[in-house]
Amino acid sequence: MTANGMSPFEAVNHFFRRAAELEQLSDDAIDVMCGTYREIQAQIAVPRDDGSMLVTNGYRVQHNGARGPYKGGIRYHPDADLDEVRALASLMTWKTALVDIPFGGAKGGVQVDASELSQKELERVTRRYTDQIGLVIGPTRDIPAPDMNTNAQTMSWIVDQYGRKNGHTTQIVTGKPVELGGSWGREEATGRGVIITMDEAVKELGYTDPSEVRVAIQGFGNVGSWAARIAVDHGYRVVAISDVNGGVHRDAGIDIDKAVHHVKETGSVIELPGTEPVDNDDLIELDVEALIPAALGEVITMDNVDRIQADLIIEAANHPVTPLADDTLKDRGCLVVPDILANAGGVIVSYYEWVQNNQEIRWEHADVNHRLEKKLRESYRQCRDFQHDHEDDHLSFREAAFALAVDRVVRVAELRGYL
Ligand code: GLU
Fold it and tell me: In the chain, what are the domain boundaries?
């Protein structure tokens, strides 16, 4: 349960139900989509380096496969549980539909604190998990990818482990290292997508110069750090960044290259020379034009929503805003670019990686970036057009995005005879 009394899956389904109402879906269709197609909960038991056993749970949830093979990342996190993985799997269904790539939605999770495991232990966990979900994944069935605390190395172990039983199958996962069939541009794709959608939103809000936009970014992992670098490249003033240890603030703008270097040296953004400390809770409430939550879910709730000063929120993380807080932001006229659009850059380039693997070719980096940019700008405009076409319904941008996505999934489910 969250502070607002809804579990993460209930919260995503709350957004879905509003869209279902608008689309006048039947109760049967609503029942199907508020549940999941298949769920695996598997015991992961592997030896630790000291000879003791690590015993935990791994999950893979397939939410909806009407539009194509199931698709979605795998996260390693101590709080990963079935409900959270269900929520994230359903978000993938709506995300892939919204940006119109031929996939369904899935997600995986292993309940571990990756920072406490050695590389060898992580490798054992990953190989065991791959065996446990091996029967339901496949290059035309379900294609995992990185998510929180997993990366290109994790994907390499999956390719190897899956290949031992099934023969080498590059396209079993996306987000691989380039040397092992990965795509140029995949590593930074989510962060790049976040900034592409911010460009669209900023234009719409009437800013003429990106340097007028002060940006606070919570989280400096793969998504947050790339978003920060690309934001600076696009001329924005990134004034605050943070990680699990805390954050730093400088109103004149933070030198992100220096921050990246500092993280490499010290392991954290904290104590970056020339900046003031700010904790993660205060960062969300800073006096900025744009806020990018790029870490955990449910960081904007009824407890802090009234103190948020930004007029623009770009959801780089999955599900950072609870439904009640979202209503408050809507009433206040704050523009929220929802996760299913803002962070879709990752899965879009995952799709490009899968296409390249299937064709056994590699596209140039600039080509990947160009296609990503075009796809996201188009998706943003389609959402905006949908919102304008339903003017009388007074939809928020998120509500429009969900309705458009639900519409697409239902259409294909009907064509295939599922509904
Ligand atoms: N984990 C990312 C997401 O939440 C990427 C998923 C993928 O590439 O399949 O969208």
Answer: 36-170, 189-337
